Amino acid sequence: GKSGYDHYMLKEIHEQPTAIRQCLHERVVELEREIAVDSVASLSVPDRVQLVACGTSYHAALYGTRLLRERGVPATAFLASEYDVDAVPVDRETLVIGVTQSGETADTMTALREANSVGATTLAVTNVVGSSAARECDRAMYVRAGPEIGVAATKTFVSQQIALVVLASELTGEYDVDLVGALRDLPGQLQSVLDDSRARTVAEEYLDADAYFFIGRSYNAPVALEGALKMKEITYKHAEGFAAGELKHGPLALVTDRTPVFALVTEGANPTKTIGNVKEVETRGAPVVAVTDGCSDVERYADFVLEVPETHPALAPVLANVQLQLVSYWVANDLGRSIDKPRNLAKSVTVE
Ligand code: F6R
To answer: Residues in the active site (predicted)?
Structure first.
């Protein structure tokens, strides 16, 4: 059941601290300050990594590429539906990771089969034990979010993010001590975001908006995309997310006093440059909602601030994303949408 929540989505948003703990269990050993993942422990550091995924899982994959590149591994994320179309070069020295919550998404399966057919090493990062992706791939790493009922992916996305953090560390043997410590604190910090969030107030304030924009750089760019996707899916309102630097290359033309801009401004994700973009939209009368860890003076330009606790720069987007999930949820709720089963959408997309 929904355990007293009005929707599965809200319940699953609140299950995220637990989802993180489950994902980390026996993988991050705090006392020994190390990370260990059985399913990939024997893999050598790959020459290159390709991540294939759709939708929200693609946003997790984009986040994963950054984690890997930071550790010196050339990594690229592909939309699974474009993987064969693009004639991506793939060979035996490539590790291809399918990021798929359900493990059944047709496009992702096609991409993984293609990778297997040329002898690449394949790894499924999935939530479902024994799913098609888990069976197709050489290895499987389970994200352990528990069953997700709401069509909109929430806790499985967070679990994918955490699994990729752990995986990037394990694959490269780079155990950042600060990161390990920050992972331990993350469930409690996420809980504090849930307890203290002002997302409902923000949602009510901008219920009549023409469109919602989401901007962020670096680690936060995938979260900007994810914030917009969630908003579209469950509210049926227009939303766009993009890397903040793209703003002046087109989208700025859409910005008015009826298009709130959500700016992700956290430590280590080029806050100063993103504040530059915030000023550009503020000058054009757009309401600004800053999702921030207090690393800058972005509050000065913001109409609302959604706070996230300070953490390791790589984990800030995990917390920032939760604020955006809540904003979308409350907008959808206040508009009376069918939150757990949005129109036209299915939980598992098994046709290409
Ligand atoms: C959005 C959403 C979808 C899925 C996509 C891939 O909330 O849930 O975009 O992320 O259909 O699904 P999986 O991860 O099962 O391959």
So the answer is: 347 (for fru-6p isomerization activity)
ipTM for the complex shown: 0.99
Span from the CA of 328 to the centroid of ligand 1 (angstroms): 17
Q: How far apart are the CA of 352 and the centre of ligand 1, in A?
A: 13
Active site residues: 347
Beta strands in 133-193 (DSSP E): 139-142
Least Cα distance to 244 among 262, 227, 268, 267 occurs for 262
Q: Counting atoms of ligand 1 from 1, which one is nearest the CA of 102?
A: 15
pTM of the model: 0.97
Q: How far apart are CA 331 and CA 72, in angstroms?
A: 40
Spatial neighbors of 88 by CB under 8 A, at least 6 apart, are 50, 78
Query: Is residue 321 within 8 Å of residue 59, measured between CB atoms?
Result: no
Q: Whose CA is nearest to atom 10 of ligand 1?
A: 56
Span 291-338, pLDDT tens digits:
999 999 999 999 999 999 999 999 999 999 999 999 999 999 999 999
Distance 285 CA to ligand 1 centre (A): 34
